[in-house]
Amino acid sequence: MTSLTRLSCVSCGAAFPATEPRTECGACGSLVEVLHDLASFGRSGEEWRALFDSRRSALPGAATPAFQRSGVWRYRELVFPDLPEGEIVSKPEGNTNLYPGRELGRRLGLSRLFVKHEGENPTLSFKDRGMTVGVSWARHLGMRDVACASTGDTSAALASYAAEVPGMRGIVLLPEEKITGEQLSQALHHGALTLGLDTDFDGCMRIVADLARTRPVYLLNSKNPVRIEGQKTIAWEAIHDLGWEVPDWFVVPVGNAGNVSAIGKGLREWLELGIVGKKPRLAGIQAEAADPFYQSYATGFARRVTRVAGETAASAIRIGAPVSHPKAEREVKLFDGVVGRVTEAELLDAAALANRHGLAICPNSAVALAGAAKLRREGVIRPDDLVVVVATAHALKFSGSANRYHAGGAAFSNPPRSLPATLEAVVGALEAG
Ligand code: F0G
To answer: Distance from the CA of 43 to the CA of which of 16, 271, 313, 315 falls in 20 to 30 A?
Structure first.
């Protein structure tokens, strides 16, 4: 099979075969990206759209290979053309709902709000979109050990996808006591070698990167550009959901900065292929306690700021030194982007408000929602802009912060009431409101 794919350094442009299990440049040590020769397919934008429409309208039944029902592999020629279809490890993933904001949007002043709920993926976060590609490619390369550092969602996805491949071992390095119990249980249940380290995410990331440099271990953090190829389908699927209408904004929470890079890369590719003709704007949002990308943006990207990330309910984005900063900076600049940050009260209230309207989004997703509302208040987002907020994980992975919030004292707290086991007490509670 002829190769359509290569790895390319984002700093010095050095090229490497995609079959090298590398996640950094062999010449200068910088990040690498996956480049496919997509123009070689010779299809027009209209032909691509027709192909994707036909796959979407004819979802095959459960007896067919799972990838044929995947919202990632629907776009397979543009995701990883070098991967033989028979080697794809898919659950399937993607095909998440794009919820219209309705009353929630009105409350936030966003008349055309949509929430792309990536928490509806098999392991309840967007990480599955990248992991289906990463684990498939690891298997193709014959890698037995796959590893990541994680704030809890990458590790869940890695463990779950690795569990599908006989002989593959998932290894996860977790900042001890800094991820939720639900997330930890996912890694344990799926049989990953689970290592809690007495450090933060950034410390785990440094160690796992060293591990991958010194041992035959395939790194599956988003530093691995193969993961990005799956995640870029979030933007594609949202545009497809909108009947090929490109929103004015994509708003995303930023931690290690892989996802905002993925969304930008996907949008660039569809613009180049003529699949879409309009350029949306990008907004990356952080929590104040973990805001290095925001601080870098505030210097006009003159400086790359890192910090020790503080405690936040958005624990999945508690990251002080985002590994994909250079890629994310490039995409923010290319898409006339902005970077914002929100307080703990803002993100917790946004989560409660969204979920009170029937969504089930996590505090990290709520960072993006609160950020969109703030950009609206500041006049950066206009009232009738079409806004897609990417909700990155499901509320149920973060029940601790929800239950603490609802215990009382916050804007939308809904505290549980404890009653004697009598009809009178229940009726009394109803009447009291
Ligand atoms: N939202 C959730 C729920 C996440 O788990 C993450 C990252 C992000 C947003 C940020 O994405 O890192 O690409 O900017 N979680 C990683 C993990 C770090 O280990 O699960 P990013």
So the answer is: 16
